Amino acid sequence: MSGAGAASGLDHVGICLADPAPAWNRYEALGFTLSPVARQSGRRTPDGPVEPYATGNRCAFFREGYLEVLGIMDQALFDNDLGRFLARYTGAHIIALAVADEHAALARLRLAGIPISGISHLERPVEAPDGPRARFARLPLPEAPEGRIQLIRHLTPELVWQERWLNHANHVVALESVVLVTQTPAETAARFARLAGVALEPDPAGGFCLALAGDLAAPIGGPRGATRIRILAPGSLAAVLPGVVAPAVPFIAGVTLRTDDGNAAVARLLPQLRPVAEGLMLMPEDACGMALVFTP
């Protein structure tokens, strides 16, 4: 099913909060190196003017992929749907898949009947407000009940994945998978497959899996290796993330993060970790609403 404009892998997963500052402190305490605070701006429509948004983020950038910790910093400005997401629950609401060619992806999605008006753009300063700006081309899935589900291409990857932000005390080097819980796994998985341009596979826990092959030619920080989106029914959650309870459905329940030291550093840093099938898990209440599974 994959072809021109198909997604190559997970780009990032984003956690959303009304007040991001405590979450930034928490993620630093978990051993993540976070990028500086960056206020976002963008176009509400593909041909609209660039305007400042209410939101700001800090990110944990890995050798492959990243986690975004995003919140509202100015209630008077356009919140880019963050308020709607937070009305459901505090936690992960963003899944972004990497594409190498946003124009080919747009053509493919229109042929598939997905009503995307055009390529959207987002930008933010890398560090100083008047300094270089990271820019992104985005194709969001319209009215996705799961949150902000999108295809993305980094137009300035060298500004995002800087060496000074890639080394983490917990030794995480890659974002490997994300778990999504839904009452309608077949319907949800079909939508995700159309967005990604990748065939579905059965998930061993029940439900479905989008296995994304990666791209060895991806720019720095891109998904060079294989990544997965696991789409499960609520009854399957306990087998994958034991003890995690969905506050609402659909629910982005957790991610798997690969370390380069066999989980030695994270085991020292975080005594509250629980053993699970894929490694060591931090519960959502300890990670701002999303389970983190560290895998060797």
Descriptive labels:
296 residues; alpha+beta; 2,3-Dihydroxybiphenyl 1,2-Dioxygenase, domain 1; 2 domains; 8-stranded mixed barrel; 8-stranded mixed β-sheet
Give structural notes.
By secondary structure, the protein is of the alpha+beta class. The protein has 2 domains: 9-165, 2,3-Dihydroxybiphenyl 1,2-Dioxygenase, domain 1; 172-295, 2,3-Dihydroxybiphenyl 1,2-Dioxygenase, domain 1 (Roll), CATH 3.10.180. It contains 7 helices and 16 strands. The protein has helices at 21-29, 82-86, 102-111, 157-160, 185-196, 237-240, 264-269, and strands at 9-17, 38-42, 51-61, 66-72, 91-98, 120-125, 133-140, 148-154, 172-181, 200-202, 208-212, 227-232, 251-259, 274-276, 279-282, 291-295. Strands 1-4-3-2-6-7-8-5 form an 8-stranded mixed barrel. The protein has an 8-stranded mixed sheet with strand order 10-11-12-9-13-16-15-14, with helices on one face. The longest helix has 12 residues, at 185-196. The mean pLDDT is 94.
Q: Name the CATH architecture of the largest domain.
A: Roll
In the sheet with the most strands, the strands line up as: 1-4-3-2-6-7-8-5
CATH class of the largest domain: Alpha Beta
CATH names the topology of the largest domain as 2,3-Dihydroxybiphenyl 1,2-Dioxygenase, domain 1
Biggest sheet layout: 8 strands, mixed, barrel
Count of separate DSSP helical elements: 7
Structural class: alpha+beta
The residue-averaged pLDDT reads 94
Q: Quote the beta fraction.
A: 35-45%
Q: Taking Cα atoms only, what radius of gyration do you get, to the nearest Å?
A: 18 Å
What is the element string, with H for helices and E for strands? EHEEEHEHEEEHEHEEEHEHEEE
- Number of DSSP strands? 16
Low-confidence stretches: none
**Gross morphology:** globular
- The residue fraction in helices comes out at 10-25%
Whole-number tally of structural domains:
2
- CA-CA gap between termini: 31 Å
CATH superfamily of the largest domain: 2,3-Dihydroxybiphenyl 1,2-Dioxygenase, domain 1
